[in-house]
Amino acid sequence: MRVWDVDPGYLNRSSLLGEHRELHGIVAILKDGKRGYSRHPETLRWRGYGWALSQRHRLLAAEMALRGYVDRSPVRLRANPRQWPEIFLNPPGEQLLLLAGKYRDRPPGRIPLPRDNQQLWAQHKYSVLARDPAAYRRIGRELALSRDGEGCDELALRLVQLLRRPPEAGHLRNAIQHMWGYVAGYSQLSGPEINRLAPATLLREIQRLALIHRITYLAESTALGELAAWPGQQPGK
């Protein structure tokens, strides 16, 4: 049983659908009193964190949608809003190493497992910009000034913690507009039309164009999937 803490974009098809299934198993234990793996460490660390479990499910569903799957099983637990488990069964940096070993002879996820801090940061940049522009600038400077930057474990943990924060509306629009710059040349929408679009609508257009035209920098970013997963960003909102 495993609910990962790293972005779902790193998971391959089997791991993504497997986590979705196992998360629902944890929900059945916590909400409906099913016994099963009720004493499993993964179940225990999510006890009392219903909101976070629901949000992890939204992140999985957003990544599934990006890969053509339709989720019809929402999770609506609300306990302890905006609070996440402090315990990791494996720290985020170690989770990336576990996935690298797991996928050695298997298909990878949408986002390549990072070789170093620079690649790890490049994959997360717009997700961080949507939450904290000061952190975005600070991390970029730190990595530029250091040959190796932080140890991957430290940076991976820092990024997971940042991405657990909901995007702020103004920062979200700014990040999405930065992303739009990579696909604008493929769109028939005018500047005024773009400015009138809600962020969720513009993000869906970015997703579509990035995947159709294989815009690698966006297609291998956490932001392409996870920014759609927050309340107010789902289709129709």
UniProtKB/TrEMBL annotation:
Span of domain DUF1722: 125-183
Superkingdom, taxonomy of origin: Bacteria
Position of the signal peptide: none
Cited InterPro entries: DUF1722, Pyr-dimer_DNA_glycosylase
This protein's name: DUF1722 domain-containing protein
Highest classification ranks of the organism: Bacteria, Pseudomonadati, Thermodesulfobacteriota, Desulfobulbia, Desulfobulbales
